[in-house]
Design a protein that fits this description.
With 305 residues, the chain is of the alpha/beta class. The protein has six helices and twelve strands. The mean pLDDT is 94.
């Protein structure tokens, strides 16, 4: 019997370095590279950082002109250090950053494959416009790439934190063929948000890997709680009575490197045989989702773009 195709995903649930600006970005890069080495030692094929790790998602209780000035480019020390680590370790790395972009920065994930090549660039589409993120430039698309790994090619997409609140995000990624969705995060992963992630994995038959900050982060708004989590999206499978728990890994609140395994053969077999996701969709009836609607008064909020 041939070997199973097992993809090992490392969630780098790290604290951010103190300070601000270039010095913090440099220290965060060094800490992230060290965590990548640990992940590789534990057999990881892919490593993922929390949301905007270049500056520790340090947006709160600061003037906008201060934190937006901490945006970094793809040619920065921070990005280059992690790109180099991906190549030297032979492991894909999901690099998260406040990315310098035209008139206002973006909240971005760059995925570098095990050869150090950029294969995915995703910027958060659903920015949190009810808070400091209203100063950011939102992304405009939901790309999916083919990631070369030791377990073979894997179709990978991304969504970032608040994107999770919109089921359309994961649905589009599934329609583009995503088998694994990477989700950098910076908010409490309590029971309802964990249920959202479980639901996105279940309804799309897609693995979802979410990396959060540990308890007490980010700076000036310490409301994260760890619980980085990996769902494999396989709810029903032979050998399991009834439905099975799709949660492969859930971290605790502490800082650490957490590695979980995805059985790609099981996921692909499941997607061929089960009826979630695309099978019985009726998209002609969903056109209202693409139209603006006048909502009832109690749902109207200021600051909508």
């Amino acid at each position: 019997m041939p070997d199973r195709h097992i993809l090992r995903v490392a969630l780098l649930q790290l604290r951010s370095a103190p300070g601000t600006g270039e010095e913090r970005a440099r220290l965060n890069a060094e800490k992230a590279v060290s965590a990548c080495r640990t992940a590789k030692e534990r057999g990881a094929d892919v490593a993922l950082l929390p949301e905007m790790y270049s500056m520790g998602y340090d947006l709160y209780a600061r003037p906008g002109e201060d934190w937006t000035a901490e945006a970094v480019t793809k040619d920065s020390f921070y990005v280059n250090a992690l790109r180099t680590a991906a190549r030297e370790l032979g492991m894909a790395v999901g690099v998260t950053l406040l990315e310098a972009f035209e008139s206002a920065p973006r909240n971005t994930l760059l995925l570098y494959d095990r050869h150090g090549r950029e294969v995915l660039s995703y910027s958060k589409v659903h920015t949190c416009d009810f808070g400091p993120e209203r100063l950011l430039t939102p992304g405009e698309s939901f790309p999916v790439c083919e990631l070369d790994t030791a377990a073979g090619p894997v179709r990978v997409g991304a969504m970032i934190c608040y994107d999770r609140e919109f089921p359309e995000t994961a649905r589009i990624l599934m329609l583009h063929g995503a088998e694994l969705i990477l989700v950098p995060n910076a908010c409490p992963l309590e029971q309802n948000r964990l249920a959202q992630l479980r639901g996105r994995a279940y309804e799309n038959m897609t693995a979802i890997a979410t990396c959060n900050y540990p308890e007490g982060e980010p700076p000036r708004a310490p409301d994260c709680n760890g619980h980085s989590v990996l769902f494999d999206g396989v709810a029903y499978y032979r050998g399991f009575p009834g439905s099975r728990d799709t949660c492969v890994l859930e971290a605790d609140e502490e800082e650490g490197v957490f590695v979980g395994e995805l059985d790609l053969d099981m996921l692909r077999d499941y997607r061929r045989k089960e009826n979630q996701a695309e099978t019985f969709r009726r998209p002609a009836l969903y056109r209202e989702l693409c139209e603006e609607h006048e909502l009832p008064e109690e749902f109207r909020r200021p600051g909508k773009r």
